[in-house]
Amino acid sequence: MSTLAVWRARSRRENRDNLAETALFRRWVATVTAGELVGFVIPALAAALLVTSTGLPPLPVLVVAGAAEGAILGWAQTRVLRHVIVGLSSTRWVALTVVAAAAAWLLGMLPSTLRDVWSSWPPLATAAAATALVAALLGSLGVAQWFELRRHLPRARRWVTGNALAWLLGLTAFFAITSPLWRPGQHASAVAAIGVLGGLVMAFIMATVTGLTLVRLVDHGRQSAGVQSQHLLMNPLTEFVLRSRLHRLVSGSTALLTYRGVRTGRPRTLPVRYARNGDEVVVVAGWHSHKLWWRNFTEDSNVSLLLRGTERLATARRVLLFDDGYEAMLASYRSRHPRVRLEFGVPVIRLRLQPNLTATPPGD
Question: Which structural domains are found in the chain, ordered by start?
Fold first, then answer.
């Protein structure tokens, strides 16, 4: 294939990706704006009801209304996400959004509910409490949804910052519109109409910023998936080389790990980069959110390691962030593979070589 043909094929692929990202962004903005607007009508009506009814407690009424808003927003978001992220749990996403929305409304109501308490605080303490409250309010939805998104997309933590920025801009616009228009003694319908107008602008801004964040996350996830597909093609070739007399080309940094799946009981073999320190070998599960093999080592497991052309028995166990020895093992791996990019909290597999010189793989 000529260079021109390769360039044309790459250009067509990039154009298709750009069109897909544009379509995703437009659908997200339209669907999420509508969902948030419909959802926000419920707290707006609840606020109008509180204006005319003095006997209702504001805090529980608005928290329940906020939970309903979160349910509609979460449902609207899943209408788009389910077509983009395979395996996303819509039920879990909506439930997390409901809890986060209720918490956000609770946090938002605390200043007015506890006015008599904080009004007597020193200015510095009041400022510190207000900063913490605003940070918790802005980050509530993003943090809650991150618990589901991190299962499917790398760098999902960006969703937290993207959401916080989206709600900061959206809420700023909401109050900039509604504050000059709301007046004491207004009819409930006027209060609700002004709230819906501010909610529409807020919803559009929030959907736009989160849509841009989602497109970036999906694009990065697609690139990661491309890397994974390359690994599927390269792994058999790497295994062939490691089992041949040519293993010295790669066996200084790569070994063959053979283990039995905890659920299936079947033997699995895959090439892994390693760092060795005496009888201890360290392996890292990069892009672990897209892989399952490292989860087989919650307890000490007997494995086989083809190390520099020699089959060795070993005991493997995973070590996670904050576990004893994690930082030291990760530092050992980084020193051996300084150019390998590792995400935060990547799992480490510690293998202790057994004293025998040769071994029969677990699959035999």
Answer: 3-226 (no CATH), 245-353 (2.30.110.10)
- 77-125 pLDDT tens trace: 999 988 877 678 899 999 999 999 999 999 988 887 777 777 778 888 8
CB of 195 within 8 A of CB of 47?
Answer: yes
Judge contact between 297 and 317, C-beta under 8 A.
yes
Q: Dihedrals φ, ψ of 310, to 5°?
A: -120, 130
Looking only at the bridges linking them, the beta strands covering 301-307 and 254-260 are antiparallel
What is d(CA 302, CA 305) in angstroms, rounded to the nearest whole number? 10
What does the pLDDT look like over 50-75, one tens digit per residue? 767 767 788 889 999 999 999 999 99
For 147-169, give one letter per residue: b (16+ CB within 10 A) or e. ebbbebbbbbbbbbebbbbbbbe
Instruction: Go through 317-341 and write b for each residue having 16 or more CB atoms within 10 A of its CB, e for each that does not.
Output: bbbeeeeeebeebbebbeebbeeee
pTM of the predicted structure, to 2 decimals: 0.59
- How far is the C-alpha of 294 from the C-alpha of 166, rounded, in Å? 35
> Within a 13 Å sphere around the CA of 317, how many CA atoms are in the beta-carbon half?
11
